[in-house]
Amino acid sequence: MSGKNGRFADLNEGFYLDKLEAIYQKRIDMLNSVEPTVETVLEVHEQIMDETVKLVLEKVESEWGSPPTHFAFFLLGSGGRGEQLYWSDQDHGLVYAGDRNDEHEQYFLGLGQEIVTALEKVGYQKCDGKVMASYKRWCKSSEEWQAQLLHWMQNDKWENIRHTLTFFDATTFIGDELLLQDLKDVIFQEMDHNPTLVQRFIDNTGRVKKGIGFFGQFLVETKGKNQGKLDLKQIALFPFVNGLRLLALNEEIQAAPTLERFQKLSPFYKEVKEFEGDFYHLLNHQLKWQKGVKSYGSIHYLDLGHLSNKEKKDLKKWIRRGHQLYGKIRTLLEEG
Q1: I need a labelling partner for 5 at 20 to 30 A (CA). Which of 138, 223, 236, 278 fits?
Q2: Structural domain span for residue 330
């Protein structure tokens, strides 16, 4: 993996960094100008990340040669679900075809590190939890990934189940989609063999953070840099996200976006599908409310002082609806 082959001779380090700086500025300009809707913000992130990752691939291929086998670079977290806000961190992984091979592992871990560095330069900060394709846990051959998923599901540890749920929100961004689809099938097959997995998934996401008190007041953060603000992600969004993920696992729905999971549910879940509009409106209002936030660290915390009385009333309704939905889904799955 050393030595340039001359196919990308123009791309010296200075030129490459200039390109990344231009992409960063383009990202800022686009996000400042678009309407705060799920569709428009997602389109910006997809365009910026596509340009960045393709530039990295061009650089890597010029220096190390073409990828030695098929691979898929996939997004996780809000990126995998298509629910990114104006600021987003990195959550991603990579799978390459076949069994473990030292040369292949070196190539793809190197590619993962180049992607992490480039995405950081265009405005996506590194994931604090190290859920990135530059780490061996999230960059493996397809055979290693299969073994890893089975290990996570067959070993009764909270962290293992959490990793499985994180993986299930993956969406292929660039590469061979079948590689990721086959891995999600491994999860479905193990669930067929081990029906107790559903309850373990439920238990792992069952702690729903309260956001409304006994007297109808918002329950805000009481300490730290976000004191006085509402944890919108944990309180309002995650009951919808976690609930639909559980149903997608149970119904063998491959799609990761929460809205798409709603749409792919069978008519049997008519009562669940009635909550889709609440989640859609909540996502769009979150983008509207958080447009002026200047850093990723504060993007999920809402200053309620900026909301009108009607917006506060709507937010309380969506919080209650999300908690009601999660409870409904939990009951459906536990009663079988």
Answers
A1: 138
A2: 201-335
Q: Which residues of the chain have pLDDT under 70?
A: 1-11
Q: pTM score, two decimals?
A: 0.94
pLDDT tens, residue by residue, 253-274: 999 999 999 999 999 999 999 9
Pairing of strands 92-96, 71-75: antiparallel
- Residues 129, 144: one domain? yes
For 255, other C-beta atoms within 10 Å of its C-beta total 17
Domain boundary pick from 194, 229, 258:
194
What torsion, rounded to 10 degrees, do the Cα atoms 165, 168, 174, 179 define? 120
